[in-house]
Amino acid sequence: MRPLHVTLPDAVLSVRHFGEGAPGRGFLLVHGLASNARLWDETAAALVAAGHPTWAVDLRGHGDSTLPDNGFDTATAATDLAAVCAALDLRSVIAVGQSWGGNVVVRFAAEYPDLVSAVALVDGGWIDLAGEFADWADCEQALRPPSVDGMRAGDLEAYLRKAHPDWSDAAVSATAYNLRELPDGTVERRLPIPRHMEIVRDMWDHPVWDWLPRITAPTLLLPALPNDPVRAERTRARVDRAAAALPDARVQAYAGGDHDLHAQRPKELAADLLSLAG
After folding, report:
1. I need a labelling partner for 85 at 20 to 30 A (CA). Which of 49, 57, 108, 186 fits?
2. Cα angle for residues 53, 54, 60 (degrees, 5° grid)
């Protein structure tokens, strides 16, 4: 892995580059809200092993990218991806987005079709908060992240290992990297809560449904279906609506999958992503 940096007018984005010189079609991997590019490492390793160069982006305010004063919305994130492609001379990428990153990739593929040869949406890309909550107040209350003031880094990793016993050490460490360890051993969010909620509000105000029909590239939808049958049915309904809106779509569901499929089942996910490479 080779770290790269792309300088924008108001931010510097960190990009993890895997498989330099690999001959296959390239993958551009986009994380979800309050996540980071390291969660793609194991998936990227499998893509590179199959001969495909891969780039994983830290969106502004996430991971190792800088935290500017503005631009915390889906449209800006999509424009940032186009800037990354221009800076790194990436063409006809297979764009992969997880959770909110899926919504970002939808907007990116719709607005910059010449940069995208295929799309994969990993348990995201069909997020419609206005369709899930009665009003913004309910949405804001449900999705506002809890405070981590005083939490120690070791306690965070222990919690993650207990909550996700089927995740690798690398996946746990990458998830812990969503927070920054301070000199006193406690942690703080890399993406502050006010910026986090700016993105949530933008998702509330701008659902993806107007953008999905504009995607011309083949699209693979990869939902994680919860074990709870009611929640699973709701997920299927949203995914079916998204697939119907897309000109060229197919669905590969993960029964019992975590929302972070790239952390839980990275090799299986990579195998599905490779089906887009031809």
Report:
1. 49
2. 150
Place of tokens 């994680």: 224
DSSP secondary structure code for residue 40 in this structure: G
User: Would you say 102 and 128 are in contact if contact means Cβ atoms under 8 Å apart?
Assistant: no
> How many other C-beta atoms are found inside a 10 Å radius of the C-beta of residue 194?
8
Q: How far is CA 69 from CA 10, 192, 214, in A?
A: 8, 11, 30
188-203 residue pLDDT tens:
999 999 999 999 999 9
Kindly tell me if the per-residue pLDDT of 48 is higher than 90.
Answer: yes
Q: What's the pLDDT score for residue 127?
A: 96
Tokens 């079916």 locate to 240
Q: What is the largest CA-CA distance in the chain?
A: 52
pLDDT at 21: 79
**pLDDT score of 257 more than 90:** yes
